[in-house]
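note to self — DONT lose this again. spent like an hour looking for the file last time. sequence + predicted structure for the chain T wanted, 271 res
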Amino acid sequence: MEAIIYITIFIIGTLFGSFFTLATYRIPLGQDITHKRSYCPNCNHRLEFLDMIPIFSYIFLGGKCRYCKQKIKPRYLLFEIFSGLTFLLFALTLKLDVFNLSINIIAYLVYGLLYISTLFLISGIENQNHTISKSVLLFGVIVTTVYIIYLYIFNFDIYKYAIYLIIFLLILLIDTIVLKKTGKQNYTLSILMLCFYMALGTNEQAVILSIISTLLMIAISQIIIKNKDNKSNIIAEDSKKIPIGTYLCISNIAFLILQNFILGVNIWKNF
């Protein structure tokens, strides 16, 4: 029975992965992500159900649009698989027992998958648009706030999370004031909000480790980019933009799973 649960969670992860690719394209453009049907970005033909089955549609269609025969980038397939595996790994950390599933474990599973989803969306949008999506951040904070209230009902110590939430809202207020004055999003403030959101979703240790990993990835990526630029004698404009948010999100997901799975750190041990 556990195998059926894990397979189902993997399938849900692939479905979310397919949705993430759509959302990361539409959200920066201000397009609807819930009611408007999916379409081919090349020929604009509306996609049918058989065109949108994660993983299988890509394989059966030979990696091409069924209507215009334009090649579909392999990253869509890879991300669906990666998203499914991430969801599966997170579920495995909880060691689910179908005959002993408590409401607390189910709540943590649902919240954890939603938390991971928001980080995927934030990183995808940053790669697409070089900005941190406030709408996704706010959605994540709202979901987290609901979860914190749920924890409070079960007498869980939520005071530090309440402090993180207040700090997040203060930074959001400052960022809104700056945006009105300058007309531009302040990337530094966005990264600070992301860090406090991650503190809400995981814990201080995971955030600190995520920051350290991000600094290492920045250093490595800059060395690689510098070597490429020296060889080509051309400095690409995109190479100057460091996706700090993406590095933070991927690192935080990794450390969340690592803490639960390898170190055995589980929020429900506090109950």
